[in-house]
Amino acid sequence: MIRPGDPYGELASPSAAAIEVSSDAEASRRLAQARQSGQPLPELLLRGGDLHRTLGGGAATPSPSRSDATHGLRVPVDLGILRNGDDEWLFVAHAVLRRALWSGPFIVAMNAQWCGDLDLGPRSHPADGLLDLTEGRLDIRQRFTARSRARSGSHLPHPGLRTRRCTALEIELDGKVTAHIDGRRRVTLSSASFAVEPQAFIAYI
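-> structure tokens emitted (205 positions)
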């Protein structure tokens, strides 16, 4: 588990077995495929997405040949898990449970710092063994203000939002919400559990 001030990652070329992915959704899909088939989680070469940005990758990068990628960073990354009954979904960056336009109750689980153009996990680190969770319910005016401030991560603290950092959490929501996992709309549910597997896979930037 990474703690403040600890070194993180090492300079390394991507391994020949590393799978190149251009988005968070593609990354979690590749990991889920391996998990479902009983295989070890593959190493990933990140080319875009919010995890890529969190790790210093910036905007989506082109795909040079492997021989050109000699100055990359090799890092261990936590894996987030959302469960509902016997179903589970993996996420590398975030899982957002909400209704349309963020009306009603919502909960945001961040493994990365960024969720699109919003800094929803200003304290999040993708290898600290913790998920950064924010839950609440905001009226329309509060939502507008919070979204504006979330671009810089200054939406927290907020009296209408509860935050915590944890390894696991079970939740019951007031009615059904849609789970957006690594940016993809996946399932509608009213209860779920979150968990994290510390440093579950290797990523290259």
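The first strand starts at residue 10 and ends at 11.
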